[in-house]
Amino acid sequence: HVRERGSSSLRRFDADIADQLERRKQLALRVRQGVARREFVPFFQPIVSRNRNIVGAEALLRWQAPDTPGPAEFIPYMEEQGLIREVGRQMLHDVIHTAARWRRTHESFQSISINVSPVQLREEAFVSHVIQALEASDLPAGCLILEITESLYISAEKPVLDRLARLRQLGVRLALDDFGTGYSALSYLQWMPLDILKIDKSFVLKLAEEHSGRDITIVRAIIQIAQACGLAVTAEGIETPEVASIMCELGAHTLQGYHFSRPVSEDAMTSLLHTHTTPEVPFNTLTD
Ligand code: C2E
Ligand code: MG
Ligand code: MG
Ligand code: MG
């Protein structure tokens, strides 16, 4: 009896896997078509200073078509299929162009943050793509922040390390994204050239809960580590004014989250800049 039950659950398991494979194949095909149709566009989420001026933005890919998944689902497919090289390069180019315009029209706007996949970092030509994009739009390298997520795929490989070091020599700043959630959080601090540490939103979201004493301790410790390493700290996932205040007290340099704004279209970001970049009209004056 035990054996029979075993084999039937094994069959169910096989069917599940077949289902999943079919879904993956479908999605891979749709992603490929979406790229060809230019359905992937950057949205922007403001990054604010401690006194709530918009000092930058993070570009986040969105798939502009009905019933499409978010980046957490489609980016792994793009990586698997190598599509992220083409999409990422286009993204660099377009987003830097937009950021250069914002910088010309809004004095407080200092930097644009772009997520970079490990697949892109493995490309020989990645550094020259970045240089080309900066030169095409006349954006100073110091205005670009590349966000790199800890992952199993990227380790202290010599070519990747050399590329990161060269980017930094140019003046590009490097941020370690999702800090604290990865596989080797602390060891990254040992080998990676870095300027900014982004505390993962899972830690920041917890600060909104009751009895968050232990979570505050963890975040405080992360910020102390960052300071000891000479890194600036950005807190993502700020959803309430209370958490914004806590993060400022703990010493975060810049803040990002739904409390300030969700990721929005390029036009909506331009409007946000018009209304929220002067010290007279800081973000969320009413709720603070
Ligand atoms: P990430 O780089 O850590 O981006 C932050 C994510 O947190 C975004 O999710 C953003 O929408 C979300 N977020 C921001 N504020 C809040 C908040 O207050 N509360 C909550 N609950 N969430 C908040 P999104 O846009 O779904 O992106 C997911 C991930 O996909 C990104 O995480 C990034 O790793 C990746 N990604 C997005 N765009 C790109 C891209 O152009 N290239 C690459 N390589 N990866 C990208
Ligand atoms: Mg990011
Ligand atoms: Mg990330
Ligand atoms: Mg993150």
Automatic annotation (TrEMBL):
Span of the signal peptide: none
Domain EAL: residue ranges: 24-277
Protein's recorded name: Uncharacterized protein
Species in which this protein is naturally found: Kushneria konosiri
